[in-house]
Amino acid sequence: MENENEDNLPLGIALSWGLVKPPQRGPKREMSIEKIVKAAMEIADQEGLAAVSMSRVASSLGFTTMSLYRYIPSKDDLLLLMMDAACDMGGIPNEDGQDLNWREKMRIYFRASVDIMREHPWFTDIPISGVPVTPKNLEIVDLGLWTTRDLPLNDYEKMSIVLLLSSYARSCGILMKDMDLAIKAGKSPSTFSGIDYSSALKKLVTPERYPHLHPILMSGAYTDEIEGGNPVGDDFEFGLERILDGIEHYVTSKKNYPGGK
């Protein structure tokens, strides 16, 4: 394996950009970095990140572990490549979405970011180790900046808004994928509303011990028992809209910009 990179990028990052020549030995036609990463992702999607090892991936492809190391030198490099491959937001409109206002663009970006974590529950099990530098991960940054393109903000403000949106998406994505996994394991969806425990909680949560929670619980808001349904709708979407309201307030207070909902 020969590194063509002249900028001293770490090997895993260089691999993601195709800056490393394929090995001269080993199963050249049957094996590739793309096939290895795809096989690893399939294992992680089905069994979790802990099930991914170089030997397990090699076995799933019908090759020896040493064969894999000729293409991807370490498990850390494999995880980095898996993360990058998962960051495929090709479905988000870019230039074709010119007629969308900035709020709708940010909604699209948020939902697509959350979908990555729901489709690949292992994604957030890999710690963030630095600024995005791999190609598909940078596409996410680019698409985030697409949402701010028409806003009268400087580059630092735009990057901060992308960080705000992506951070909220990551938080919501972790919660949603945890709920998905729990339901898949047999938990009832009503477990997450708390309605299954409503009767018991109303006995256990006293106003003396929980003076602020008690009235909320008794009103039915804590366990989604409000007659006519939750008036704020989906909690995650509610939070997103408040973030967008904050961005709109910031923009309009900074410059006389009409915004748009």
UniProtKB/TrEMBL annotation:
Species assigned in the record: Paenibacillus mangrovi
Gene Ontology MF terms: DNA-binding transcription factor activity; transcription cis-regulatory region binding
Listed GO biological process terms: negative regulation of DNA-templated transcription
Keywords linked to the UniProt accession: DNA-binding, Transcription, Transcription regulation
DNA-binding region as annotated in the record: 53-72
Name of the molecule in the record: TetR/AcrR family transcriptional regulator
Pfam family, one: TetR_C_1
Residue ranges of domain HTH tetR-type in the record: 30-90
